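Run: sequence + pyridoxal-5'-phosphate -> complex structure.
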Amino acid sequence: MPKPARPETVCVEAGRGRSVGDPVNPEVHLATTYRQGGTYEYMRKASPSIEPFERAVGALEGGHAVAFSSGMAAAAAVFDGLAVGARVLAPTVAYLGVRELLATRHERGLLDVLFVDQTDTRATIAAMDGAELVWTETPNNPLLGITDLAALAAAAHERGARIAVDATLASPLLQRSLDLGADLAMHSATKSLAGHADVLLGVVATREEADREALVGQRTMTGAVPGPFESFLGLRGIRTLSVRMERCQANAAELAARLSNHAAVSRVRYPGLADHPGHELAARQMSGFGSMLSFEIGAGAEAADAVCRGARLIANATSLGGVETLMERRGRYVEEQPHVPANLIRLSVGCEHVEDLWSDLEGALAAARDR
Ligand SMILES: Cc1ncc(COP(=O)(O)O)c(C=O)c1O
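>> structure
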């Protein structure tokens, strides 16, 4: 069979068995233990249910992937592989859970974490000396800032540092982080990879066999291993990733343009908009602008809450990357202060008809104005 070259095909084909008599779709194996002498021994170490999902993410990233029980577990495995006291250069704007994870390790003296605005390439490179790991996130959550992965990777490698990226908002479909120079590409597969807001899952991809082994070792030790059914759902999600992403990002682009022209909206952040500060960089390092956008309500935080409550179709809920459109005011989390404006709503755009989404948003914006 010719090697599937295009990511759309990889999404559908990767991780399947190819031998005569193989099931077309991998099966879910629930056994935790195996008679000794064969390939598998104990589920926390290795499981035939996890591997097809890992092969699919590995194929999309162009490396090997190690699956975890959540995105947070995946990030923690990367940090826990560092020596005590190692300097980590981290972004000031990133998913709040990962920032908290780093800040807590810093407070406990486990890591020496320095936060810097990584959308500023020069400032980030200037802060790199002594860092063992550059941890980055692009596009960042929830401001949709873009970090120059290739520039940071080159600078990090020149200084003997390694670079890991949380590429959850892009997905491996829109950003080939390892090709851009990242040593490790991490995803909360809970989001667009699985895609249906019904499973917690994480993954780290790498090209180095030593990194893969170290991550598997961390996972085995801490038990941060995904369950068989979760891995099955992750792979099931990947099958439709490209068609979902196509619709979601077309919807996002349209909504971003319309919100930009709405009187109640003071600012829209979407990398696909020409006035986005990271637009050209995103066009260079991503193959699409994604399904996430944020917008600010001119009348303030209370009005933004009213918009979130006023929508009928769009759920006022956290998380992102699913087929269903979700929105929430991110400034309501104290951990987002002071970087995220209080009036900022993050919108994860799903696969509904764009006109239904727009009339819901227009109605919610009008209801907030008439309060
Ligand atoms: C960018 C990003 N990274 C990591 C995570 C954590 O992933 P999980 O919830 O699967 O642990 C999230 C969750 O929202 C996220 O948005």
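>> summary
The pocket of pyridoxal-5'-phosphate is lined by residues 70-72, 95, 97-98, 137, 141, 166, 168-169, 188, 190, 200, 202, 319 (CB under 6 Å). The mean pLDDT is 97.
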